[in-house]
Amino acid sequence: MSLVQSVDNVALLPAYLAAGTAVLVLLADLVVARAGVTWAVAAGGAAGTAVGAALVGAGETRRTFCVGADCSWLYDDRAALVGALFALLTLGVLAISGPLLRAGGTPVGEYCFLLACSLTGGVVLGAAGDLITLIVALETLTLPLYVLVGLRRGSVAGAQAAVTFFVVSVVATTLTLLGAALLYAVTGGLHLGRLGALFGERPELLDLPLTTAAVALVVLGLAFKVAAVPFHAWAPATYDGAPLPVAAYLSTASKLGGVVALLAVTGLALPATVTGPVLAVLAVLTMTVGNLVALRQRRTVRLLAWSSVAQAGYILAPLGALALAAGRTDEARAGAYAAAVAYTVFFVLLELAAFAAVVALRPAGADGGTLDELRGAARRHPWVGGALALALVGLAGLPPGLAGLFAKVTVVRSLLDGGAGWLALVVAVNAVVGLAYYLRFAAVLWAPGAGPAPARPARTVLAALAVTTAVAVLVGFAPQVVLDLAAR
Amino acid sequence: MTGLLGAALPAVPLLAGLLGLLLPPSPRGAATGEGTARRLAIGLGVAGAAGALLVAVLLALRVGAPVETSATWIDLGGLRVTLGVRLDGAAALVAVAVSAVALAVQVYSIGYLRRGPHDDVEVDHRYPPYAAQISLFTAAMLTVVVAGDLILLLVGWEVMGLCSYLLIAHDRRLPEAPAAAVKAFLVTRVGDVGFLLGIALLGVSAGSFRIADVLAHDHSTGTLTAACLLLLAGVAGKSAQFPLHTWLPDAMAGPTPISALIHAATMVAAGVYAVTRLFPLFAAAPVALTVLGVLAAITLLLGAFAATAQDDLKRVLAWSTVSQIGYMTGALAVGSPSAALFHLLTHAAFKALLFLAAGAVIHAVGTTLMSRMGGLRTAMPVTFWCTLIGLGALAGVPPLSGFFSKEGVLAAAEAAALDGAGPTPSWVGWLVWLAGLLGVAVTAWYATRLLLRTFFGATRIPLAEPHDPPAVLRWPVLLLAVPAALLGLAGFAGTFAERLRPAAPATREQPSDLLPPEGLVHFTPAVLLPLALLAVGVGLAWAGWRRDPAADPARFLGPLRPVFARAFRLDDVQHTLVVRPVTALATATRAGDERIVDGAVEGSGRGAYRLGGGLAALHRAALPRAATAVLAGALLIGLAAVLIGGWST
């Protein structure tokens, strides 16, 4: 084995682009020192990263940093999809950050730099081929967020939220690292593909209690990132304390990161006999607790936060079907992973639209406020209100929010294919509970009531909202595009 | 091309109806006839009906042998539902009748639903939805007429039920209109359940809902009898046959043109038509035909006797419809669908004429009660002569249309009774024949009574100044008088008769013979019998009236009069046997639903809400609890995974 490796720089191009964006933003902030330029550089970089990720992904699968057959960097179709999604989400969050940045109180340069850093973590995450790269990428994705959550000057809620997020996150990362270390102790491998092959070749490894503990710890630590119950308690407090666009980023990009990491370890490395039951338990708990608590929320962002906890449950549910033997056939496994990815894509779209609409309906730089403060908002801004209602209805999974409907149908179908009818029933019951608060939220928008005089929402916010809603409507009519993409 | 025309037949009024529904329902100035929306609605309605009539006439000229088109609509695991038309001579002729009556009704309505000088200002005729609903009604009936698939037929059948509900309830000022509409809807719905089940049974048995496939399939006798009996329930509902006839007289609460439409062209004709369409099935199920024959005889006499004692002009006509439909189903029961269709066509003409003429009378005197009419002959000569033609046809006076068609029915029944010619036992023939003969006399009696009470004698409304209706009301009546008088002569024409006969002549096994087709009407000495009975009926009524021109000849009915007036109190029977138990059951079910089912639903909702509150309370004090939860969760789930380990391997 040669100690000098040839590095496939093309495969690394998306990561270079994302990291370069961060550096450029820093330089632009130092040299030009104008908020608009800094923002534009960040936005341009994010767009460039999206294009780069898609272009590199259009070619064949690229590998680099290989030791023998095991590679730490695996740039395939799914990595391209993840990278492009991260870049687009960052772009969308940047767009809805306009009013926040213009309102002052948030340093623009630092804000954009941290977002770009987080984006880098996301792009690397999609291509990670071993546990170390995966965890480092995930931390790169998460670390800037601690700061972003508490970035507003003089905001006590923000500081509290940041500390909560930080402490819980550190605990969770510790768990994951412990699990990874134990896995290494058992198998002597860290590459995802190699782990999977090892468990396949030597089933006796699975009988070791240590293996089970290691696998459970890795999965549970990662479950923190998607805010699955019981690792969710940070989410509502953190979302509510963070500025609105950061909350949007947390509930879309950060959650996407968790899902990608979970799919990577469960799909490639870890034995489904252990991950399946653990994920099934997590999914049931997450859906149920998230929906029930969301029923009682009076604050907009807390409601969205709890609802996103519940949505994480729907994402995990198809993977829970791996608990049963019928769910472990190749076909059912592929279906379950595709359903989880597809649901995630639909969810982040609708969630971003909902947050963008809330940003548009609230005064510049304000937090989410209470539901009562949005009373009658749709009468003052019919289009924005309509878009918010569409996103909410979609999250609830009802027509005319067809994207959400197809997402739920996909999940339930994969569960039924996997023989996990009881889990499908839990999903259905939870969807019914979810209707109660989503529809109440949507109804509040049209309820009669006095509100602040209509202020024109910022143009970038409207553009982000329009594009997201248009895409959501489009994939609602052509869901097969997303389903095909997810199945690759 | 013919298939395309067939598809266009219902499509034209359907389009007009759907467009009409887009118009504002109650536009300003609609009642006074000045609104643009009203004018548009009139244009759409008349154009839809006229277009349908044009297509129907073209079809009637083109169609000889049956034409089928079909395209698969849905394939449900071996059960094929197609979208197609099945056209034969009978369908084309019925379509002509339907669209002609619809056109007459559309034109007539322009004048009938207009605010007159004596009406109060708040009259709200909501003309656009009214005209659109007539168009939809026509389209639904035409769908039934041309449908080549039982499911398509059912669609038209059900849309008709809906339209009849809407149109009967049209006049909001009448307190009885909503109740009548609900009654019509519910009673026909009871029958429709049977119809639906019958269709399902046939479709499943044949593996296809296409009428041609259903007819060609060799059904087992049990299936066939059950299906035909179920279909008969629907037929009885739509065609107002005993015991589901009770909705028809109450439906008089609708505007008079709607009564004409329901009685002459749509609704009641649909049931009879559906049986002729599927007649080969019925012919193979003599049990069903026997039941039909008994029901026909009961209905025929029930309707005729009930008509004798009514004081309401429209109710007399309504009961006469019940009775005349009894003749049609009687003809079907003795195995002569062509006689039934012939009577259906002539009935469409003279009953539409009678209703529209009655509308003119009501329009002129402002009441529907015959006890407040009288002596209108001189004031309204056009209406009088038209009504005379209509009543003559109804009673069967030669050479008006009703005489020939009724003679056809009686001849078929006689043949079945004396020679056992029908598919049913000969006693059914006897029953229908005797009931039909008795019906002739009774019909003549009440028709004469109606004429005398309305147009002869001294006027009983001295203040009103009746006059013939304006042109827009007069012309439809006058034009309808032509077929009412002359259509019967068509029975002599071989080509006409050929079209009314079921599609038998063109089968492969039995090629049609080259002899010129025979007419429908054959006179035998037996024709003297109904003529004599007719004279008896007319004479009795005349004699009674002569004795005291101011009094009602119905007084000679004596103690039977109140029984006839309330139609043998069948409404009360229905109320006691069906309505009250159902209402009681509904009350019980509602209580159960509110307390038990709803209680469970609301309780679970409240439970979920409270549980949510409890869980939310656990999430205050975020950081310490969050950290504890992560550690505890990891510990517990990890432990569980290790301890239970392998439980799923």
Question: Helix and strand layout, with pairings?
Answer:
The complex is a heterodimer of chains A (488) and B (649).
Chain A: H1 9-31, H2 35-58, E1 62-67, E2 70-75, H3 77-96, H4 98-102, H5 108-127, H6 131-149, H7 156-187, H8 192-201, H9 209-225, H10 234-241, H11 244-269, H12 272-294, H13 300-320, H14 330-361, H15 377-380, H16 382-396, H17 402-417, H18 421-446, H19 459-477, H20 479-487
Antiparallel strand pairs in A: 1-2
Chain B: H1 2-21, H2 36-62, E1 67-68, E2 71-76, E3 79-83, E4 86-87, H3 89-112, H4 127-146, H5 150-168, H6 176-206, H7 211-216, H8 221-238, H9 247-250, H10 256-265, H11 268-277, H12 279-283, H13 286-308, H14 313-333, H15 337-365, H16 381-395, H17 401-419, H18 426-455, H19 471-486, H20 494-500, H21 528-547, H22 560-565, H23 570-618, H24 622-644
Antiparallel strand pairs in B: 1-4, 2-3
Helix pairs in contact in B: 1-2, 1-4, 2-3, 2-4, 3-4, 3-10, 3-15, 3-19, 4-5, 5-6, 6-8, 8-11, 8-13, 10-15, 11-14, 11-15, 13-14, 13-18, 14-15, 14-17, 14-18, 15-16, 15-17, 15-19, 16-18, 16-19, 17-18, 18-21
What does the model show?
With 488 residues, chain A is mostly helical. Chain A has a domain at 271-488. Chain A is built from 20 helices and 2 strands. Chain A has helices at residues 9-31, 35-58, 77-96, 98-102, 108-127, 131-149, 156-187, 192-201, 209-225, 234-241, 244-269, 272-294, 300-320, 330-361, 377-380, 382-396, 402-417, 421-446, 459-477, 479-487, and strands spanning 62-67, 70-75. The radius of gyration of chain A is 21 Å and the shape is globular. The mean pLDDT of chain A is 87. Chain B is mostly helical. In chain B, the strands form 2 sheets. Chain B has a two-stranded antiparallel sheet. In chain B, helix 16 runs antiparallel to helix 18. The termini of chain B are far apart. Chain B has a domain at 573-644. Chain B is built from 24 helices and 4 strands. Chain B is 70% helix and 2% strand.
